[in-house]
Specification:
alpha+beta, four-stranded antiparallel β-sheet, lysozyme activity, Lysozyme like 4, signal, Glyco_hydro_22_lys, Lysozyme-like_dom_sf
């Protein structure tokens, strides 16, 4: 099974981390509790520094608003709630997600994990765009391609995650709870 991969990761030179750790974690003879507190701060700092630098996970309501503004509300008869549900189950609202499925030999791109074989320039290119264009947080190309996909005979059924998680859900309304469109 494939895994998501981020496009870039922050790189912290090991020497810098070592210097920081050595200076902060040096033994404190007067206050042993201070040493424990310093260790906690260093671990938190290191965790912060190695977080991907350009991850752009969007909030649920931000996604809903962008999809609404892009014309997906009731597009081809599918409610906005269906689109937000799909975005969650495909990418967890990460418009820059890239998923490599080695078993089925495809790569999914962006918010809706649009497959390279059919829809972007690494395959048949039915959306007439590069796969990297699907990784933009403004979602314009993603929405354009999703409209092309859903106009096909399978509609939103082109995404197995929609069929499994959204199609017959009786809780779709929750995807827009509290969102101001």
């Amino acid at each position: 099974m494939g895994m998501y991969r981020e496009r870039k990761r922050a790189r912290v030179p090991a020497v810098s981390v070592g210097i920081i750790c050595d200076s902060i974690l040096s033994p404190s003879s007067q206050h042993p509790e201070l040493g424990k507190m310093k260790a906690s701060v260093v671990l938190s700092l290191i965790g912060y520094l190695v977080v991907p630098s350009d991850t752009a996970v969007l909030g649920r309501c931000v996604v809903a608003k962008k999809l609404h503004e892009g014309g997906l509300s009731d597009f081809e008869g599918y409610s906005l709630e269906n689109w937000v549900c799909l975005a969650y189950f495909e990418s967890k609202f990460n418009p820059m997600a890239v998923y490599e499925n080695s078993r089925s030999d495809f790569i999914g791109y962006g918010l809706f994990q649009i497959r390279n074989h059919d829809w972007c320039d690494h395959g048949r290119n039915r959306c007439h765009m590069s796969c990297s264009a699907l990784l933009n947080p403004d979602l314009k190309k993603t929405i354009e391609c999703a409209k092309t996909i859903v106009k096909g005979k399978r509609g939103m059924g082109a995404w197995p995650s929609w069929t499994l998680n959204c199609q017959h859900s009786d809780t779709l309304a929750r995807w827009l709870d509290g969102c101001k469109l």
